[in-house]
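hey team, just a heads up i'm posting the complex here instead of the shared drive bc the drive is being weird again. everything in one block, sequence lines first with there labels, then the predicted structure for the whole assembly after. its four chains so it's a bit long, scroll down
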Amino acid sequence: MGTALQRTIQQLRSEDREFFQIAISVDCVIFGFDKNELKVLLIKSDLEEFNNQWSLLGDLVRPDENLESASYRVLKDRTGLDDVYLEQVFTFGEVSRHPAGRVISTAYYSLINIKDHQPMLGDNELHWHPVNEINTLAFDHKTILDTCLQRLQSKIEEHPIVFNLLPEKFSLRELQNLYEAILGVKMDRRNFRKKFFLMNWLEDMNELEQDVPHRPGKLYRFNATRFSNGKKTQTPMPV
Amino acid sequence: MGTALQRTIQQLRSEDREFFQIAISVDCVIFGFDKNELKVLLIKSDLEEFNNQWSLLGDLVRPDENLESASYRVLKDRTGLDDVYLEQVFTFGEVSRHPAGRVISTAYYSLINIKDHQPMLGDNELHWHPVNEINTLAFDHKTILDTCLQRLQSKIEEHPIVFNLLPEKFSLRELQNLYEAILGVKMDRRNFRKKFFLMNWLEDMNELEQDVPHRPGKLYRFNATRFSNGKKTQTPMPV
DNA sequence: ATACCAATGTGTAACCTATACACAATTATA
DNA sequence: TATAATTGTGTATAGGTTACACATTGGTAT
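-- predicted structure starts here --
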């Protein structure tokens, strides 16, 4: 016997034409950080069913395009940015998730420095929304957003990826505000500083903040070399 | 304008027929535990390109079937088991990952009690393989296996799911052997016991192991109620 | 019956990490 | 020059993780 998977595509095309009735798309949760808020880039849906609702940025995957390449393409088209942090999170495949037909969608999130995003001409339907203020989205996009935010929250507990959301030089206060915005908690300033210095991820730029109405803080940048050297192999233990 | 995603499927069918040239499948990494080894259920590939190589169990997703339902169907067909632990891990979408055409595959892993698996008639091509002894698989299935194993390893550090791999009653030694097999490390027996008793997941059955050639250990079972009660909300902190 | 074997079952001290917490120093601004 | 706002810094406590050794139990062989 053998499953459908083990036959050739040629066989499938003749025998099982039904299998080619599913479209696959990518949806990108594009995170940014501005005014001490975590934000996400959304577009006005132009499907009638979701009139006036916002939705994530996505597109169908082309037959000759890798899944990840499709995400990068969406990002490039919508933000003009290459070389951004991108991570696959989950694939949403409910039969009825798209009102117009069967579309399975793989969700990615990406982290960009919001200042680098120059809205393209004709993209007046694109807007940054504070994540905290989003209650509903078109399709199942609220679920996708929540899933990606949870992944981001757990990811930053172990990996130095938040730097993608900041300019090259930043103060410790900005870094802490960012962690607090993503995790939704307040942290102790002294302990936060201690932890980061111990991890040895930061390089002191010997510069100070400009244009702040109080004593300026020192500026740092993320030093990836220190990170890869400083990784300690932790002994895995249950729970 | 608007992306392809925002048009209707009817429009897509006529305008963008190319988008329906991609098939979608699920592949299941079915883990079991036997003789102190973590094992995975594999099938002989019957594609010529992969003659005599083993592959994961998978199938194409049907147009009227949820993605997750497809995984449960594969599991039911191959193991006879319903109601198993199943978790989506990652979607593999390289253009050339399947030699016969464009197939995007979503990987799941599941945990079953290997003793419950009664091989079906006609399934003489199905075998349990020790995960440690698998070097190559058909397609990109070795990558899929590795990815699912990593997910399993990190998952069990925080969630009580390994019990799905054990019979209802088990000894602490069996439980520790299982953790050691999954994580690939040796652990201290005293600390292991201490930790599990502190977590309060285990219920003492007041029974002893049978047929062991030495002093028998006490038997326990997993108590999900205790788990959900005992969860403590941990303060999230960076790194 | 007895001796031996192989595993179970148990506690404590050292170490490390996480947390709570207060005051002096600096710069901008009025 | 005084005030306001924020930066920058250390220590003590608590909690969790790790390392580590010996008596007990039941099975097995003689």
